[in-house]
């Protein structure tokens, strides 16, 4: 946490616009419009004001630096301008927009690292648009980790909603590569970072973790796959021996029903959709993606760019509002902890 942050004068949160042709501009404008009803801490957007005014008719105030945000926040959406050169057409992403999204992300990371912004909330980006302009990271998570000097495996993606938190142990890789990517070490590091992250960001001192199996029925004693016996179980046992409150592997199909969810604080899942399907089914409009293991607080709405509805004024700001709220809460929570509180 940058030493400059204190409870008294929390700097504004930085919110990146994401792809200017996606729904980012609309949901950020809509989030600002309901800031009072939702008690949102001051934030500013980093991106093209042209993209926002194309889809949202509220007031925008261009600011020269984040410290101007608080003064205008009550009357207009503060915007740290990123000039996008090309035409911006909602629903029609292009290379210029991808460059703008990346530029905003880079600036947002820098501001959060320096403490000029109290946290980073990222708007949705189109991954294929980023890949097409030479982005070599799987997603924003790994890019932010690199910029913060954190090894990729130590930056843990967590998706969180009111009744469920999930961690995809493997993230953006093809399904056919998942089994080969799993290892005792990877599960161990994801679990350890998760436990510390739940303590630092949510104040859960002794988090209860569960681990899903990979195969149907968690492998059925090795008859339906051996990853549980050879990788997941040894990882869980070694973590338990070190004092972590963790159990599994559990059959994935029975891990997410209501009474089971009440028994844990987070579920480690073996691949992206094993984690994100239950989360988005339960909490699509309030789901937040938080990166654990970073020196900064970073959140994002759980959904993507939704190019198909961009510019139609029908996108819900719910997950963006939840992402802003969760970021602020985590910043305030971290400020109350001593450096050694979470191990
Ligand atoms: N945090 C991020 O930057 C994320 C980016 N993506 C990217 O977004 C792009 C599109 O991905 P999809 O799989 O289509 O997922 P998506 O989340 O953009 O859209 C899935 C469905 O949900 C709807 N939807 C999404 N957000 C909504 C909102 N706020 N209000 C109302 N409806 C909403 C869309 O219209 C669509 O029907 C991809 O390039 C993907 O890489 C996807 C997930 C997260
Ligand atoms: N499905 C979650 C997602 O795509 C978020 O990725 P990231 O860009 O935040 O790493």
UniProtKB/TrEMBL annotation:
<comment type="similarity">
    <text>Belongs to the PdxA family.</text>
</comment>
<dbReference type="GO" id="GO:0050570">
    <property type="term" value="F:4-hydroxythreonine-4-phosphate dehydrogenase activity"/>
</dbReference>
<feature type="binding site">
    <location>
        <position position="272"/>
    </location>
    <ligand>
        <name>a divalent metal cation</name>
    </ligand>
</feature>
<comment type="subunit">
    <text>Homodimer.</text>
</comment>
<comment type="function">
    <text>Catalyzes the NAD(P)-dependent oxidation of 4-(phosphooxy)-L-threonine (HTP) into 2-amino-3-oxo-4-(phosphooxy)butyric acid which spontaneously decarboxylates to form 3-amino-2-oxopropyl phosphate (AHAP).</text>
</comment>
<feature type="binding site">
    <location>
        <position position="217"/>
    </location>
    <ligand>
        <name>a divalent metal cation</name>
    </ligand>
</feature>
<dbReference type="GO" id="GO:0008270">
    <property type="term" value="F:zinc ion binding"/>
</dbReference>
<dbReference type="GO" id="GO:0050897">
    <property type="term" value="F:cobalt ion binding"/>
</dbReference>
<comment type="pathway">
    <text>Cofactor biosynthesis; pyridoxine 5'-phosphate biosynthesis; pyridoxine 5'-phosphate from D-erythrose 4-phosphate: step 4/5.</text>
</comment>
<keyword id="KW-0521">NADP</keyword>
<dbReference type="GO" id="GO:0005737">
    <property type="term" value="C:cytoplasm"/>
</dbReference>
<feature type="binding site">
    <location>
        <position position="141"/>
    </location>
    <ligand>
        <name>substrate</name>
    </ligand>
</feature>
<keyword id="KW-0460">Magnesium</keyword>
<dbReference type="InterPro" id="IPR037510">
    <property type="entry name" value="PdxA"/>
</dbReference>
<feature type="binding site">
    <location>
        <position position="298"/>
    </location>
    <ligand>
        <name>substrate</name>
    </ligand>
</feature>
<keyword id="KW-0479">Metal-binding</keyword>
<keyword id="KW-0560">Oxidoreductase</keyword>
<dbReference type="GO" id="GO:0000287">
    <property type="term" value="F:magnesium ion binding"/>
</dbReference>
<keyword id="KW-0963">Cytoplasm</keyword>
<dbReference type="GO" id="GO:0008615">
    <property type="term" value="P:pyridoxine biosynthetic process"/>
</dbReference>
<keyword id="KW-0520">NAD</keyword>
<protein>
    <recommendedName>
        <fullName>4-hydroxythreonine-4-phosphate dehydrogenase</fullName>
        <ecNumber>1.1.1.262</ecNumber>
    </recommendedName>
</protein>
<dbReference type="GO" id="GO:0042823">
    <property type="term" value="P:pyridoxal phosphate biosynthetic process"/>
</dbReference>
<dbReference type="InterPro" id="IPR005255">
    <property type="entry name" value="PdxA_fam"/>
</dbReference>
<dbReference type="GO" id="GO:0051287">
    <property type="term" value="F:NAD binding"/>
</dbReference>
<feature type="binding site">
    <location>
        <position position="289"/>
    </location>
    <ligand>
        <name>substrate</name>
    </ligand>
</feature>
<keyword id="KW-0664">Pyridoxine biosynthesis</keyword>
<feature type="binding site">
    <location>
        <position position="280"/>
    </location>
    <ligand>
        <name>substrate</name>
    </ligand>
</feature>
<dbReference type="Pfam" id="PF04166">
    <property type="entry name" value="PdxA"/>
</dbReference>
<feature type="binding site">
    <location>
        <position position="172"/>
    </location>
    <ligand>
        <name>a divalent metal cation</name>
    </ligand>
</feature>
<keyword id="KW-0170">Cobalt</keyword>
<keyword id="KW-0862">Zinc</keyword>
């Amino acid at each position: 946490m940058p030493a400059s942050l204190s409870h008294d004068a929390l700097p504004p949160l930085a919110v990146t616009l994401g792809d200017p042709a996606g729904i980012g501009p609309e949901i950020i404008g809509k989030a600002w419009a309901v800031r009072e009803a939702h008690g949102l801490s001051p934030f500013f957007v980093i991106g093209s004001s042209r993209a926002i005014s194309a889809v949202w008719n509220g007031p925008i105030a261009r600011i020269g630096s984040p410290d101007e945000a608080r003064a205008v926040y009550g009357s207009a959406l503060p915007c740290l301008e990123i000039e996008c050169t090309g035409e911006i057409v909602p629903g029609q992403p292009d290379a210029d927009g991808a460059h703008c999204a990346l530029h905003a992300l880079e600036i947002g990371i820098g501001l959060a690292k320096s403490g000029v912004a109290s946290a980073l909330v990222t708007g949705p980006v189109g991954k294929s648009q980023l890949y097409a302009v030479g982005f070599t990271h799987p997603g924003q998570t790994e890019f932010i980790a690199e910029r913060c000097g954190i090894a990729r495996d130590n930056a843990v993606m967590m998706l969180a909603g009111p009744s469920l938190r999930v961690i995809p142990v493997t993230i953006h890789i093809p399904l056919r590569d998942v089994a080969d990517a799993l290892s005792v070490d990877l599960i161990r590091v994801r679990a350890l970072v998760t436990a510390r992250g739940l303590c630092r960001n949510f104040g859960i001192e002794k988090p209860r973790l569960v681990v899903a199996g990979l195969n149907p029925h968690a492998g059925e004693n090795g008859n339906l796959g051996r990853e549980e016996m050879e990788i997941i179980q040894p990882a869980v046992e070694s973590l338990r021996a070190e004092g972590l409150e963790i159990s599994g592997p559990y059959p994935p199909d029975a891990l997410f029903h209501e009474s089971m969810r009440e028994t844990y604080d987070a579920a480690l899942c073996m691949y992206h959709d094993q984690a994100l399907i239950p989360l988005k089914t339960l909490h699509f409009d309030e789901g937040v993606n938080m990166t654990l293991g970073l020196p900064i607080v970073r959140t994002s709405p759980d959904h993507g760019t939704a190019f198909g509805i961009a510019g139609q004024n029908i996108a819900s700001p719910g997950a963006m509002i939840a992402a802003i709220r969760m970021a602020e809460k985590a910043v305030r929570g971290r400020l109350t902890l001593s450096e050694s509180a979470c191990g």
